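Before a colleague's protein record goes any further, I have to sign it off. My question to you is simply how this chain folds and whether the C-alpha cells agree. I do not need a full report, just your reasoning and any doubts. This is what I was given:
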Amino acid sequence: MELQSLLAPLRTWKFWKELLIMTVGMFIAAAAVYYFLVPSKLVVGSISGLSIVISGIFENAGIPIKVSTVVLVINAILLVLAYFLIGKEFGVKTCYTALILGPMMDLWEKICPNEQLIAPGATSVMGDLWFDLVCFVLILSMSQAIMFRINASTGGLDIIAKIVNKYLHFDIGLSVTVAGVVICCTAFLINPFRLVIIGLIGTWINGLIVDYFTMSLNKRKRVCIISDEHERIRKYIVENIVRGCSLYEVTGGYSGETRKEIQSLLTQDEFAALMKFIRDNKIPAFITAGNVSEVYGLWSEHKKLKK
C-alpha cells in the first residue's frame, strides 16, 4: 500500500510535465554557468560562484578539480543539511534540480566546450566582463523564474536562504540577498577587488530580474464590471471561461442607482476573451482592470470548475 502511494504521482501528467520543465530549466541554467560564469571567473551570489572559488583554490594548490564536480558535492551536502535543519519542505524537486546541475555542465562541455567560443586573446565568451555578467544574469533569472512557477528551485542558494530564514527569522528575500553577498565575498580569495564588485552588482541585478520575470509569469487581471446585463456576463465567465466570480451591490454616487458589480480574477487570455465577448455582443458596461502579481488560496491556473 505504501509503495502504491509513493508511485501514484508517477502516473500523473503533472509529474512528467514538471519533470520535463525542471530538466529543461536546469539545462538552461547549466549553460549560463558554463559559458558565461566559468570562463570569466565572475562570482555572482550562487552555489556556482562559490564552486568557482573552491575550484580556483584547489587549482592554485596544484590540485585541478572541475567546477561541475564541486557544484555536485556542495549541493549534496546542502541537501543533507536541509533534511536535518529544515525537514522535507524542499522535497524531491529540490533534490533533483540540485543534483543535476553539475552533470548538465559536463554535458554542455561535451556538446560544445567553451574554449571553442572564446576568441584568441579573450578571457571569456563575450570578451567583456559586463557582457558576460548581463548574459549570465538574464539566462539564469529566466530559468529561476520558470522553476519558481512550478514550486521548484535550482537548489544551492535557496537552501542556504531557507536556513537563514528559519533560524535568523529574516525575510526570505533578505535571506537570499544575505546568502548571495556572503558567497560573493569569498571571491576575494581568488579574484581582484574589481571582479568582486562586479559580482556583487550581478547578485543585486539577478534578484531584480528574477522578481520581474516571476511577476510577469504570475500576472493576473482583476476585473470589475458594472452592467445592467450582469447576469449575461456572469454566465459567460462561469460557463465559457470556466472561472468563478463575485457579485456586489454598488450604489452610484452621482445617480443614486443600485447596480450589480462583477469581480473576477482572470489570466491574460481569459481577460481578452471576456473583452471580445462584451464588444461582439455590444453589452454596455463600465469596466476596470488591474494587474495582480500574486494569488493565494483556492484560485488556480488550472481551472477547478467543470463545465
User: Anything to note?
Assistant: The longest strand covers residues 258-266. The longest helix spans residues 193-218. The chain has a mean pLDDT of 78.
